[in-house]
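Quick check before the chapter quiz. The format below is the same one you will see on the exam, so make sure you can read both the input and the output lines.
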Amino acid sequence: MVVEDGGEVFVVREFDAAKDSSDVEEVERKCEVGPSGKLCLFTDLLGDPLCRIRNSPAFLMLVAEMVVAEKKEIVGMIRGCIKTVTCGTKLCNDHSKPLSTKAAYILGLRVSPSHRRLGIGLKLVCKMEEWFKENGVEYSYIATESDNQPSVKLFTLKCGYSKFRTPSILVQPVFGHRVKVTSRVSIIKLSPSDAETLYRLRFATTEFFPHDIDSILNNKLSLGTYLAVPKGSLCSGANEFLASQPESWAVLSVWNCKEVFKLEVRGASSLRRLFAKTTRLVDRAFPALQLPSVPDVFRPFGLHFLYGLGGKGPLAVNFMKALCGFAHNFAKQHGCGVVATEVASLDPLRFGVPHWKRLSCDEDLWCIKRLSGGNNIDGVGDWTMSTPRTSIFVDPREF
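Here is the expected output.
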């Protein structure tokens, strides 16, 4: 597709890994998140621009190539992936039946700072939506920082998206010492098949639950699903757990983002760096005090993402805290800098997730758009108009 705008000519085409990778990396570098002169988060894709979508059932990456005096330069890109997810529920014989839809997720929209306000971002979104429609997608959604006004305005004012959900990203640094996990909880690792059984039976009605959960759980990046139950519970797998479910329990799975990309905090002042280094030195000098220390996030670091968080019972929050402590120690063992998760703003389990407010995001804005008027959610109506629910399933392949 060739577009002319104000005398500028650019082509929107499919990404070609053989010739575009280095140019895409350069655009990513120029588009570091965060205003100039302030802390910003840089993502190192480890030489694979497709790393954040290639594990999805269907995916596409487009680039915008500027043509000036026969010289070509990549000035923007966008990524998208398609899957089938739960969008609502329908009461059937006193039971909630999950209703599904084909949804697409847009991520990684970047336009080089020197080529903005030329309509490139809008054209990239429109071209990606064309691909979605060709593949039967009914809803398209994106996630962006609520204070990223250029992005919010692009999608809500120009692309027809509406503000939909505001989950919270919770981030905990991996300290130099292990977190103590209560002995009153047993933590059981489930096999991928047992984890699938549990998730399908207990979470199939959760908003955004992916119908290919088996593909996620069996992916090499999924490091396991862990179930927390009261100490002494006779439970070794999903069948035993479902046959005799304890009053309180919690579950989560771990995704190894460290093998996909690495992060780095840039723009920190010398004072901030010195403070962080001091916390590590003091922690190493007095390990018995178990003082919280700031890992070296000013160099590339990896992370584990916790997904599929769920639980039930009066002690579910405590059990989730125990699981998060276990996940922290697991991440420390794997050399990660942080552990992160994303939960619905109304989810009570969020109070069991330890996190640092300075590293977290209270309101990650999700926007949604209906691309077609299919009838696959009869009884629910337009998903874009539905009210927020208490929980949400965040796909680790899209984090």
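If your answer matched, good. The longest helix spans residues 316-333.
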